[in-house]
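Suppose a colleague, Dr. K., hands you the sequence of a protein chain of 347 amino acids and asks what its three-dimensional shape might be. Before reaching for any lab equipment, you can write down a predicted structure in token form. Begin with the sequence itself:
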Amino acid sequence: MSPPSRILFIRLTALGDVLLATPAARALKRRFPEAEIDWLVEKPYLPLVAANPHVRGLAYDKRGRHAGASGLRRLRAELGERGYDLVVDLQGKPKTWYLRSSGRRAVAMRKRSPGKSLLALFGRDPPLVCAHAVDLFLDALRPLEVEPAGRELELRLSSELEAEAAALPAGRLVGIAPGTRWETKRGPAERFGQVAAQLSEQGLQPLLIGGPGERAVFAAVRAQLPAGAVAGDTSALTVGGLAAAIARCALVVSGDSGPAHIAAALGVPVVAVFGPTSPTRWGPLSERARVVRLDLDCSPCSNHGTRRCPLGHHDCLQKVDSQQVVAAALELLGAPAAGASAASPGA
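The predicted structure, expressed as tokens, is then:
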């Protein structure tokens, strides 16, 4: 079989997962250097791959021309017209099963057996802790004889994205990212505020990192700080502008969420606080990353987080001490840290 000349690479969402798939895209390009590789990604995340040298970004306009069932059919037809020799599906959802039929050949990620996939639909989804997400993505390419080309995440910022963050203060910023999509992955806003207050005493100016849906939790963090202590927030920026804002930070403190992986990709020191999910699978991949978590029998309990703690107490995040987080942050910044730390290197 001749090497493919046109490849469709599918990882639609989410912010962190798109970045975690960049080592697979790099390895695929090394395996097929003459091929044109289009990366299909939901439109808001397009800036994360727009400047990637190994692929060309292709937008899935989920809320626009590709909305609904008719829009999905339109997208499938558009992909079919491009004449892909190979489709690599790293999403592995029913939607992408349909889209990958646009190519002559397909390789797809398989995270679970058919039986376990069925159980997951009914809420029985034990956490996968066998390997990091980056390695699972790379493993999906083995049928193509693709060898890894490093595990480092890749994110390049254009001058347009950097301009989005140009209005931020020029001081020594610490990004505080308290929000996540799933409630059980979200630590107490008050603790993020306490961490921000203690780091501000070290000469860092807090910058609240997140999207427009996190304005309420931003307000709760601000309530822990003196008036005027916060440099601002990123709620009005695009995903690309948010990444450019993180690039301006000296340090980021985050939960298990996209900003932790942006920081890792950009080489910004990051402290990630984990609770119900596994850092073995989702920890930020960077020598300048630290994970803070409690060693509890009930954690991890979920692959992606849930609406409620299965046991009702949420101890995995409620009982994390702000001092543990601050100690990890000061270690990364090279400052002396008093007391013991529950921090460990990024998985």
